Amino acid sequence: PRGFIYGAHQQRNQTRLLFAAVAAGQVGGQSIYVGLAARERPFFQVLDELGASVLVAGTITLVISLLAAILLARSIARPITKLTQATEAIAKGQYDHRVEAKGRDEIGRLASSFNTMAVQVQQSRQMEKDFVANVSHELKTPLTSIQGFAQAILDGTVSDIDGTRRAAQTIFDETARMARLVGDLLTLARLESGQLSMVREHIDLEELLPRWVDRCRPHATASGETIVTAIDPIPPIVGDANRLEQVITNLIENAIKYNRAGGAVTVTAKNEPLESAGK
Fold this sequence. Notes:
By secondary structure, this protein is an alpha+beta fold. Helices cover about 60% and strands about 15% of the residues. The chain contains six helices and seven strands, in the order E-E-E-H-H-H-E-H-H-E-E-H-E. The strands form three sheets. A three-stranded antiparallel β-sheet has the order 1-2-3, with no helix packed on it. A two-stranded antiparallel sheet has the order 4-6. Strands 5-7 form a two-stranded parallel ribbon. Helix 1 packs parallel to helix 2 and helix 2 (about 105-155) packs antiparallel against helix 3. It is elongated, with a radius of gyration of 45 Å.
């Protein structure tokens, strides 16, 4: 017997049956089939019977899909709206504004990146404010001196040759000081914009460091201070000698400026290994 048979059977009452059967074996030489039969019905009649069920199932599916879409849209739109509001707040100068970062999905990583950016912007703006305040203070002092001595010369308050010479010398010194400040500002601006090129050359600190220190001794002497050096044997290094001289000179000048009267500024150079330097 065949393993699977199907077809249609016309009954005496003109009822047409559709059937399908599979072979289940033989009993006494007779083939046994297990089958399923159903009365044939017109297509549209079946469609009418299934229509209500299909309509109900489709309606339920549509409602569930709409609810899921609304919830998904709200879960995405709400944090994006908060990010938009936070961005507008940052643009208005509210640099302390932050957003809540939840989860590790794209929205959560975006919120975390925004908070990191906001912190960096806030720190940068604070550094700019401090820098402008410090520069304004530093420039105000020489400008006041220049204006005061120039006014004294114009008013005739300083009439003798010695007094005029001292006033002119003060104006010259303060002008040179302002030139140095402006030069530092230009250097800082080029450094922040990435336009400052650094030279890599071999530097003998044992030879150059005493020279740089000696250039600051007149300033220390004029302030009633002394400079003490303790320079050990140092191997040559690689760097920009001009920039390194500028850094060391600024450090010594600041130490002289903010030191107590009659004090001493000690410049020490040692060759010591750093545990965190690795190789």
